[in-house]
Amino acid sequence: MTLNAGGGTLETAADLTLSGLIGGAGGLTKTGTSALTLTGANSYTGPTTVSAGSLFAVPATFTQPEIGAVGAGGQTSVARH
Q1: Which of 14, 19, 22, 57 is the most buried (most CB within 10 A)?
Q2: 54 is in which domain, residue-wise?
Q3: pLDDT tens, position by position, 8-57
Q4: Per the domain annotation, does 19 fall within a domain?
Q5: This prediction's pTM
Q6: Contact partners, residue 26, CB within 8 Å, separation at least 6
Q7: Is residue 79 part of a domain?
């Protein structure tokens, strides 16, 4: 998946695991009450926003230095080893 300058939104109505590459200059916004797990080699450079639900990422695949915003009801977990 490529995130262009305008970014992209993933709404999770059920738990979702993405193992493919997410790249590009845009940001990622996660909405929906379920969990999103990122396990692929992600290289997008825009901000990451969690508006609702949970975002989990495997550390070797999540290169973003920080999560931009976490809304009420949102949570994040980047497993650092």
Answers
A1: 57
A2: 8-74
A3: 999 999 999 998 888 999 989 999 989 999 888 888 888 888 888 888 88
A4: yes
A5: 0.76
A6: 3, 4, 5, 6, 7, 8, 44, 46
A7: no
